[in-house]
């Protein structure tokens, strides 16, 4: 639960879910909402896949999913898992042997729909392999690939059909006494996805993996995801998220974090508050923010920075941020530290100076956190 009693209008009451483990990462319960992405390399390109996983992990991904379409990919998965800094989810469709191989290769979780992999014996074998290798399972219902009998029953993909599909898959796992599972009910349509997620959230206490599938490119996909996932997260639904973009996985991770940051559900790195700029600006706000975003990518400590073009809003925004800069006259502006006006700085030297101030503040926050943890 994310609660802020000082400002009750910011409270989000998180749905209570069971907690499962994806490798060493807890998902559900009171665990932080995790951010996932998926590689888009050919899995047998082991080097390329590992490089992409490392880049995603560096950007903050807690969990990364890798496709396992054939036996060669299962083999590659073993080495990928060994080198990965984060738990790996193996993405399996239809083929039960891939599921078993992926569990044996060390996948932390299988994304597999037990109702779609054939006979009860095959399902039992996959579940046994998952159990033997401490592997959890994600049931991944997708509006685009609903089972035929549900499409016939409901006529088209609809929230009820998606929830029913999810519950059918859940029942198979439960009948096999397997409970380490989470579930997603994705659709590319935000209304359909949101309704399906609300339905499944009521029908089960399993942790929920949120996603708007095939959301689009960086810009459109970000907006769709922010609306769809943002709305559900605001309602308290969702234990782990994946933003699906036709873009680099690192971008998916960044967008995922920004959505969580906007709702105060999780914090990582510098939250930059900046104005759109106008004729009043005392320095080039847009260029400066662009430069600072790049220069501050390495900061993982949650903190805030305000970059405001002039005194109309600058001092007010700076009040609520760790570091701030407000444009003034004659080629210089005011630097704010912990909400207070501290010193003047010339526009020319300002980017370097702000980077230094942010790094210093991040080190202070980290040291204070470490001291608190040692108490
Ligand atoms: S803070 Fe100042 S520079 Fe920025 S948009 Fe507002 S008036 Fe313009």
Automatic annotation (TrEMBL):
Pathway(s) of this molecule: Isoprenoid biosynthesis; isopentenyl diphosphate biosynthesis via DXP pathway; isopentenyl diphosphate from 1-deoxy-D-xylulose 5-phosphate: step 5/6
Cofactor notes: Binds 1 [4Fe-4S] cluster.
Cofactor: [4Fe-4S] cluster
Enzyme Commission number(s) from the entry: 1.17.7.3
Domain IspG C-terminal residues, every copy: 271-360
Reactions accelerated catalytically: (2E)-4-hydroxy-3-methylbut-2-enyl diphosphate + oxidized [flavodoxin] + H2O + 2 H(+) = 2-C-methyl-D-erythritol 2,4-cyclic diphosphate + reduced [flavodoxin]
Domain IspG TIM-barrel: 17-257
Record-linked Pfam families: GcpE (PF04551), GcpE_C (PF26540)
Identification of the protein by name: 4-hydroxy-3-methylbut-2-en-1-yl diphosphate synthase (flavodoxin)
Origin species: Pseudoprimorskyibacter insulae
